[in-house]
């Protein structure tokens, strides 16, 4: 019975095939590796070339990122253009917060869910068009990109979530009462 239980459980534990990074700030790479070994030994780890150059390979590299990401180098695939990871899941370059920041768009039946990473840190930034955070590498580009994404999604069925939103809840952007606002769903 014990063996049957283990094999039954194993059927559900498919190896993770792909890990995609929104960007390489330290709070977004923590589980890339653990004790100098990849957390997902069968996965391809994908990140935009510009973030790899900025955080790992460049002269202003982050030692924390280097330490966390060096163990996955043999499983790394860099990209420098928008691409489709799998049917219904697209990567779109969204530079500003970091040079290689990427948003991931899941789509099905004409509807979309946008995973924004740190393009926006607080839902308040949808309402306050000029509010910034100190962690944006290029403040002007980050602000322009954030507003472009928000305006594009406003009053559509698009669902948005960002890594630091409370409970990582999805929501829509509406302007029906005036200024842009985020309405959790
Ligand atoms: Zn960040
Ligand atoms: Zn973050």
From TrEMBL:
The keyword Hydrolase applies. Residues 8-164 form the Metallo-beta-lactamase domain. GO terms for molecular function: hydrolase activity; metal ion binding. InterPro entries: MBL_superfamily_lactonases, Metallo-B-lactamas, RibonucZ/Hydroxyglut_hydro. It comes from the Bacteria. Pfam families: Lactamase_B. SUPFAM superfamilies: Metallo-hydrolase/oxidoreductase. Keywords: Hydrolase, Metal-binding, Zinc. Belongs to the metallo-beta-lactamase superfamily. This is MBL fold metallo-hydrolase.
